[in-house]
Structure formats: structure tokens, C-alpha cells
Amino acid sequence: MMMKICVIGTGYVGLTTGAILADLGHEVFCVDKDKLKIEKLTQGEVPIYEPGLKELILRNKKNSHLHFSTDIQSVIKDCPILFITVGTPTNEDGSQNLTAINDVMDTLVQTVTSHKTIITKSTVLPGTNEWIQQSLIEKGIDSSLFDVVSNPEFLREGNAVFDMMNPDKIVIGVKSSKPIQVIKALYEKLHAPYIITSLTGAEMIKYASNAFLATKISFINEMARICDAYGVEITDIANALGRDKRIGPSFLNAGLGYGGSCFPKDVSALEYAAKQKRIVPEVLMAVQNVNDSQINLYIEKLTRKLTNLDGKKITVWGLAFKPETDDTRESRSLILINKLLKSGAEIHAYDPIVHLIEFPITIHQDMYEALKEADALIIATEWDQFKTVDWKKVKGYMKGNIVVDGRNIIDPKIVMNHQFEYIGVARQ
Predict the structure, then answer these.
(1) For 227, which of 15, 16, 83, 232 could close a Cys bridge (C-beta 3.0–4.6 Å)?
(2) Catalytic amino acids?
(3) Using an 8 Å Cβ cutoff, are 409 and 385 in contact?
């Protein structure tokens, strides 16, 4: 059954959600107050890199299932189903900036005259959807004119299209059973179990998921530090752990740590939420402490090899926080680069997708050209092309012979066979 849907916010989640819902056969209107962004989307220009997303958008624009508009109020009036996908950045103390959510609510108050199912996809702290529900009533919308639903996303950047088309679960947080059938009708072409819970329960599921995955990353990085001290190969440990069905192989790759738009802010936000209830989240705090200090291990090892970093030319391969995306939010590579710059190093970089950042470094269009006269190479993002490197060619470009494998994607023996010094953590 085709449904008429308004997606408020054309960021990463909004565009992916809108494109997939259109591809499922619904008529979708993605709205945003950013006129330039909407103009570009209308012309077929997609502002983010996500494999398969542009093709999805163009196909559904062509068949008139997907539209873009700045006329937010008119679209809201015309659509019975509204998705909120605006940004919810985290403040320094872990609390959330809900300015965009408040703007949406103000628009709804001015607009809603018929029943709306309001579905929150934005990641929000536990209790936020309850607050949205109560605030809309207090602002003058009759409670019979809307239902609030918490329907968090579980998308991996670089795999978002696949993840939304092949979910392992669909979480629905509600106050009453009335909107459940609406959500099931929306997703009727997807085959996944439904987890039906409270509004706050759905919010907590999202945070618990990301916090647990971040914990696995910090755990394997702490294990790598211990293995390093004992001369043990961390990939052997990770392989054994991954084969245990109770643990699983994902997120057990030791390296520079986690970054991106979700894990850092969500773990910090969950810590904040816990402390608001006077609970001290010891595990979450430890997860962040390990992650925050992980980069220093690599810099310390590199500094010992070079004596000091002042004036040294260092090439960094990878700027995005992970492969198959152009997202540099909380990128471990950029945090690493910032520390290197403060140590006086001259930085040259290459990334297959990211070609511009606000750092005083030189970004090259060719991965080998970036190596000219370099004293050291650091692999900071695990792009596939960095796994099949011509090390003889690398040797010809570099002045020095140090390779720092920040993502454990290189076989140390292969690198050392080409007379490089290999730096990793717990790699033998």
C-alpha cells in the first residue's frame, strides 16, 4: 500500500530513509529549510557519499516517488506520516542540542490540523519522545491529532542502503498500540522481526546497541596493549574470540579506535543520561578513556623511532572515519593529524573520497604521490586499496622506512620483507 510520507531533514539519515521508503513504493517528500541543499538534490546532486544512495535517489526521482522541497508546512499538511530526521548534536557535557527538534515542533504546532503519525528517527536521549509528546500537547495540539513513535535507525555508514533494506530488527517505541499497524504497513516489504516497546525503551535500545559495539572496540584495543607487552599477536586473539558464538567476530579489529557521527556522541550521551539519574556508568567511562588514549600509543611508538616529530614529513593514508564514506566527523585520522601537527610534523595525506578538510596539510589525488620524501607512512582508514599496496613502489617514493599500521590491515612480514620498519600494537 502506497503511503504519503514527509521526511523532515535531509542529512545522512533523512536522505537514506527517504530514498529507501520511496523505493519500497511510497510517495516521499524530503523537506529541509536549507534552500541550496534542496536545489542540488532536485537537480540530482547528492551531498553525501554512500554506496548505492545516489542511484536510489535518481531512480525514485525519475518515477516520481521521491520529491524535495523547502515548503515544509505545505508538505506536512499534505502527509499523514512524518519522519523527524534532523540533527541532534551532543554538547560538551554529553547533553543534546535539541534546537532542530524544537524547530520541528514549532512548525508542527503551526501546521497540524489533521491526524499525523510522528516518527522520530533522530537519535535522542531516553525520555525525549515522551517530552515531545507532552510538549506538543502543551503547545496546543490536541492529543487526538497525533501519535508519537520512536523508530531508531541502525545504519552503518558505507552500508546504509543494504542495512535499511535488510534490517535484523525493526524497533517501534509507542505509547499506545494504534500506530503499530501504520509502521508495519510502512515496512511491509521488509522482512525483519519487530521489537515493540515503550518510547523510552526504543531510545535506550539505540544507545545500548552503539555503546556495546564501542565497548567491543575498546576491549580489543585494551587487549592489544596487554598482548603487546607479552609479545602476543592480537589478530590471533581476535580470531579466537570471534569464533565464539557468544561474542561474534564484528568490531574486534584493534587499531586507532572508534570515531564517526554515532559512537563518540552516543556513548558520551548515554553516560550523561546515566549521571542525570545519579548512576555512575563505570564501563562507559572506561570505554571512552581507552578510546581517547589509543592514538597516543601509535604516536609514542612513532616518536621513539624518529626521535622527535618536529620537521618530519609524515604521510597519512585515509581521512574518513571509516571506508566507503566521506564522513570525517570524529575521524581518528583527523585527531591523529591534529596531534602530529602540534608536534611540528609536516602532513601529506590521501583519501579516495575526502579531498578537502580544514587542516593545514597537503591532500594529494594519488596515494603514491603523497609519499614523496616522506619519513613515515601512517594507514589511518582501512580502505581496501590500502590492503593491496605495491610496497616496492612505496619504497621508491619514501625517504624513510617506517610504516604505521593504524588499522591492522597489513601483514607485518610483507612490509618488513621490503625493508620497512613496521609499527603496530600487538603485531608480531
Answers:
(1) 232
(2) 262
(3) no
